Amino acid sequence: MNQGVSLTVRLSLVLALWGGVCTAASAQATAAASPPGAETFFRQPAVITAQLSPSGQRLAFSAAVGPAARVGVFVLDLQSAELKATRAAQFSDADVPSFDWVDDERIVFSVVDLQSGSGEDYRTAPGLFAARYDGSELRTLIEREGRSFIQSGDIRSRSLHWNHMLLHVPVASEDKRGARADEIIVGELSGGGNEISSIKPLWLNTRTGATRLFTTHNRPGNPVRWWFTPQGEPRLILTREKDRLAYHWFTPDGSGDGRWQQIAEGTMLDPPPAPAWVGTDTLYLERALGPTGETSIVPFDFAKGRPSDVPLVRTPGFDFEGGYISSREGRLLGVRVEVDAEETIWFDPGRKALQERVNRALPGRINRMSCRRCDADDAVVLVRSYTDIDPGQLLLYSQASGKWRRLSLIKPGIDPAGMARTDMQRIQARDGRDLPVWITGQRKSADGKPLAQPAIVLVHGGPWVRNGYWRWEPMRQFLASRGYLVIEPEFRGSAGYGTPHLRAGFKQWGQAMQDDVADALLWAQKAGWASDKACIAGASYGGYSTLMGLIRHPELYRCGAAWVAVTDPFLYIEGDWWVRDDISDSGRRYNLKDMVGDPKADEAMLKAHSPVEQAALIKAPLLLAFGEEDRRVPLAHGKRLRSALEKAGRPPAVWVTYTGEGHGWRKTENQIDFAQRLERFFGQHLQP
Fold this sequence. Notes:
Helix content is 20%, strand content 32%.
């Protein structure tokens, strides 16, 4: 396990496996007479999440079924040939967004109202509930803030206040230091406003609602995050004091006690290496290595008191991003990594062989595998298999019989043959910076040459996130199905491509970051994929970039669509006494002034790149959309820009607001409505 593994996955390797299937799919897509309606792309998946029980005898999955289309949790008995589903939790006035198995009998889950819009997240804490797999013994564990209990006949009333949250679902242990039967770990939150000042862990019995103290002697103050072993023993905490961050490791002494040791410190703007995986006596960190600064996974050397220089896994050209697969005993079995496409690296030989068997059965696809009784002859394997043109399917493989069963398509109604391929390109920005760009919907003529199409530059939000992945995405596929080339640049300031690429975007809103967006379109036009007809679109920061694209590069774009968009950098950085938002005081004090700009020292720069201040330069047709309950980018941003456009005498923008929605649309009907509005708007100005 200590040997470094260099990994590079390239899309060409994945696509090559498709061979003639790709060609046939492309031909059928071109020949398609009319694309599916917006509802086909944006309605709920048939299966949202799925998870095997600890023994592998049952499978729990979430889905929206019934007249009210409420998301519930259902359980399949995998020992039965009929695979009949039993309802574990479903309610008439609420939905279950996430769940986990406590043991083979009991499920713990949260509850929200997905049909009230994303604004609910600002009004109501989700609470926590538990039930037996057959729906009996339903209990409220943590009450919901701001909303009455879900309507059900018998919910036992003993519960914790809403200022608690689930921290960890452990594996039950006979060791008195770990979890007992039916127990999980929750945290009691302290703090005010948008800040959490500390989290205190508690043991919580999911059957009785009883709690017991979590013994952590001599613990450092102000822990804001906890990490545990699979059995629920504490191993690592993150503490914060003003802008100072520190990680502390716990070493047990065998008597039920132990000692805490600080192992790393930093600031909110320059944080120490983040924990990647925490084991019983092992810690892996995310650390930037090499001249290009991509994040790799390295073990922490406790003898030397610092991270190792030898990586467990490296992903050249990408920061490490993915998941970790652990045994119930706390051994790291493998990691999932996101490079050009997802790949699973198994350290366990048995699971590696099992993955190879799955991949041979499902070639040319990403096959995310989980298993129970993995080393036994009767291993049960759950596989979520997908591609960039196929939302995927859920399959079950029995090692004993060697047979496959398809449990469900993820998005019934989506025909992969009618979808557009997604490719990743590495281009050069005007100053020579490496610029990753995702392209969807490239078309070729009969002689193999590029066919220029109207283009939509889709700018991601954040901006300090990675956006592009090789998988089916509803918005990119919806726009591509309407005849557009979809261009998604990972401009400087995006995460996922090395620390230098991320930091190159600091104080570059509307400047070099905006040039990167323009350079992606110019590259596609020069390569022959994009015509001279283009619009720009995006949400949140992507909405800001849309507005600045129309201001700085008006010759490139015929229109722009911006939703939940930052329009006033001063309002975003400083806040306003009369405008309520969810940006923390520490974020404003220690991060935004360095990452976006200081309202005093950088006042001229911020005004020069403020859509509100430069509204007179917006001349292209514009669509603006906002959630009326948005607290990340409040509706005041939209109103200020609309007033500035009117004052400057510019043509009024198409104006859309959604009741009950926050920072993005949660209601399916709003997602469909907005997609249809985009289709009409782009069709009017691009005429594909």
